[in-house]
Structure to design on (542 residues):
C-alpha cells in the first residue's frame, strides 16, 4: 500500500525538477558559456571586477543583521515574558507591517529620509540644520533593518517562549545573578532562534536590489542591482549575470555553513538546509 | 523600574515599525496639487477617487488576484498530494526531495527569479509560443508556494495516527475514499494554513514576478514602476486601502480563532 502512496509525490518531483532543478542547471550553464554557447571561464573570472560590490553587500547585510539582532532580541524577550493573551497580540503587531507590500514600506522611508522629507522638515522646524540621509549607505542599512527585523524577532520569540522556566530558576537557586542567567542560560538556549533569525535577515539583505535602488541612490550598488542590470537592465548580459548569481549562491551557502557550526544540538531543527 | 524600561523599549520599537506606515496613511488624505509628498495642505479624498479611476491599477489588481487564486489552489492541491507521498517515502529519497523543497526557501529570491526567467526564455526559444506573461508568472508562483504548503501539511501528517487510515481500509473503505474521509479531515488545518500562506505570498511577491512577468503588470510591479517615475499620492491611497483590507482580514481571522481556542488558551 505504501508503495502506491509514494507515487503521489511523482507530479511534485516532476514539477520541482522542471522549475527548480532545471533553472539552476541553466544558471550554471550560462555562467560557464559565452554568448555563442562555448565553454568559458571568462564570466566567472570577470566577477572579480565587482569584488567591491560584493564586499559592500556583505558588509551592509552583516551590519543590518547585527542591528536587527541587538534591537530584536530584547523585544522578543520582553514579549516572551508577557501573558499568553498579550503575547499573541504582540506577535500579530510584529507581523502586521510585513503584510503591507515591501515596496510601499520602503517607499515610506523615502518620504521620511529625503532632503526635504519629514525628518528634515521636523529638524528645521526645531531650529536644527537638516541632515543628508537619503542615498547613503546608512539609509540602505536602515531599510534592511526595517524590512527584515520581523524575521529576526519571530524565531527568537518562538525559541524564548519554549525555554523551561525551571531551568532559569535552577540557575538562580545555584547563585547566578540576573546577568549570568541571561548570558549563560538564556542566550545559549536561544541559539537555534538566533541562527535562524540571522539567516532569515542576512540572506534577503545581502541579495536585495530594491532597497539599495530606492534608498541608496546610484552610489550604493549591491549584488542584487548588479544581477538585475545584467538581466533586465541596461547592461544586458545573462552570462555574466548567471556567473554573479552563482557566486552569490556560493557565498550564502558558505555563510550558512559557518552559521550552522554554531548550532550545537538538535541537528536539522535549527539548520535550514542540511 | 525594569518594567517601565521594557515598556518604553517596546514602544520605541513599535514606533519604528509603524511610523512610516502612519505617515503613508496620513499623506494619502493630503489635498495637494503639486503631488508633494511632505507638505500638508488639508484633508481630501481626491487621491482615492483618482485611484479607483486608474485603469492600469485596476487591471494590475485583477491580474494579481487571478494569479494568487490560481497559484494558491494549484499549489495546495499539488503540495498536499505530494506531502502524502513524501510522508510514506523511504529515508533517502525523502531526504533528497526535502532538500529540493527547502532549496527555494533558502536560495536568494533574486537568483530563483533569474533562474526561472532563463528557463522561460529558453523554453520560448525552444518551443516557440508567446513570450513571458501570465502563464510564466503563474508557474513561477506555484513553484515558490509549493514548499510552504508541503512544510505546513507534513507535520500534520506526522502527527496523525497511521492506524486510522489502515483501519478505514480494513473496514472496507477504498483508498481514495479513505483519504477524503479520514486523512484529509485530520490534516485540514495544515492544508488551510498552507493555502493562506500561498495566497498571501503570491499577492505580495515582487522579485520573482519582476523577472518572470514580461510586460504583464501585477500590483507590486505597478507599485514599483510608480516609485520609479513621478510619484503621486495615489500610491499612498493604494497602500492605505491594502493595509485596511489586510487589517480587516487579520481581525476577522483572529476573532474566529480566538472563539474556537479560548478555553484552551486560558488553561495555559
Amino acid at each position: 500500500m505504501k508503495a502506491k502512496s509514494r507515487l503521489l509525490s511523482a507530479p511534485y518531483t516532476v514539477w520541482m525538477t522542471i522549475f527548480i532543478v532545471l533553472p539552476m542547471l541553466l544558471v550554471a550553464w550560462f555562467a560557464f558559456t559565452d554568448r555563442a554557447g562555448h565553454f568559458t571561464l571568462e564570466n566567472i573570472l570577470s566577477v572579480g571586477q565587482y569584488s567591491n560590490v560584493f564586499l559592500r553587500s556583505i558588509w551592509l547585510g552583516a551590519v543590518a543583521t547585527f542591528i536587527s539582532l541587538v534591537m530584536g532580541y530584547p523585544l522578543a524577550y520582553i514579549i516572551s515574558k508577557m501573558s499568553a493573551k498579550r503575547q499573541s497580540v504582540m506577535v500579530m503587531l510584529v507581523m502586521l507591517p510585513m503584510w503591507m507590500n515591501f515596496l510601499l514600506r520602503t517607499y515610506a522611508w523615502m518620504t521620511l529620509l529625503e532632503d526635504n522629507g519629514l525628518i528634515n522638515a521636523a529638524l528645521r522646524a526645531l531650529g536644527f540644520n537638516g541632515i543628508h540621509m537619503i542615498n547613503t549607505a546608512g539609509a540602505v542599512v536602515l531599510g534592511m533593518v526595517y524590512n527584515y527585523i520581523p524575521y529576526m524577532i519571530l524565531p527568537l520569540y518562538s525559541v524564548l517562549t519554549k525555554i523551561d522556566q525551571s531551568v532559569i530558576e535552577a540557575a538562580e537557586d545555584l547563585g547566578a545573578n540576573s546577568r549570568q542567567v541571561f548570558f549563560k542560560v538564556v542566550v545559549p538556549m536561544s541559539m537555534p532562534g538566533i541562527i535562524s533569525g540571522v539567516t532569515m535577515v542576512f540572506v534577503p539583505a545581502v541579495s536585495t536590489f530594491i532597497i539599495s535602488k530606492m534608498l541608496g541612490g546610484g552610489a550604493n550598488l549591491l549584488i542584487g542591482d548588479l544581477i538585475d542590470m545584467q538581466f533586465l537592465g541596461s547592461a544586458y548580459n545573462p552570462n555574466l549575470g548567471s556567473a554573479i548569481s552563482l557566486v552569490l549562491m556560493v557565498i550564502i551557502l558558505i555563510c550558512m555553513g559557518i552559521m550552522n557550526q554554531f548550532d550545537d544540538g538538535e541537528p536539522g531543527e535549527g539548520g535550514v538546509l542540511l | 523600574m525594569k518594567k517601565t524600561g521594557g515598556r518604553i523599549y517596546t514602544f520605541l520599537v513599535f514606533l519604528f515599525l509603524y511610523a512610516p506606515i502612519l505617515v503613508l496613511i496620513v499623506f494619502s488624505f493630503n489635498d495637494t496639487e503639486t503631488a508633494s509628498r511632505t507638505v500638508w495642505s488639508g484633508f481630501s479624498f481626491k487621491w482615492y477617487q483618482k485611484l479607483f479611476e486608474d485603469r492600469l491599477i485596476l487591471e494590475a489588481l485583477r491580474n494579481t488576484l487571478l494569479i494568487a487564486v490560481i497559484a494558491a489552489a494549484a499549489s495546495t492541491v499539488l503540495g498536499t498530494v505530494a506531502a502524502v507521498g513524501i510522508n510514506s517515502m523511504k529515508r533517502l529519497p525523502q531526504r533528497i526531495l526535502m532538500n529540493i523543497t527547502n532549496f527555494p526557501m533558502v536560495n536568494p529570491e533574486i537568483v530563483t527569479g533569474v533562474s526561472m526567467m532563463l528557463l522561460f526564455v529558453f523554453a520560448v526559444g525552444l518551443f516557440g509560443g508567446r513570450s513571458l506573461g501570465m502563464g510564466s508568472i503563474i508557474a513561477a508562483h506555484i513553484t515558490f508556494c509549493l514548499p510552504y504548503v508541503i512544510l505546513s501539511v507534513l507535520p500534520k501528517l506526522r502527527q496523525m495516527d497511521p492506524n486510522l487510515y489502515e483501519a478505514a481500509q480494513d473496514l472496507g473503505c477504498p483508498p481514495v475514499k479513505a483519504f477524503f474521509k479520514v486523512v484529509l479531515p485530520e490534516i485540514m488545518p495544515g492544508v488551510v494554513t498552507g493555502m493562506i500562506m500561498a495566497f498571501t505570498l503570491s499577492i505580495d511577491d515582487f522579485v520573482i514576478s519582476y523577472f518572470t512577468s514580461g510586460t504583464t503588470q501585477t500590483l507590486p510591479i505597478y507599485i514599483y514602476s510608480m516609485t520609479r517615475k513621478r510619484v503621486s499620492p495615489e500610491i499612498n491611497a493604494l497602500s492605505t486601502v491594502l493595509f485596511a483590507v489586510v487589517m480587516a482580514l487579520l481581525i476577522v481571522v483572529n476573532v474566529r480563532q480566538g472563539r474556537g481556542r479560548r478555553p484552551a488558551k486560558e488553561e495555559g
In short: The first helix of chain B runs from residue 2 to 28.
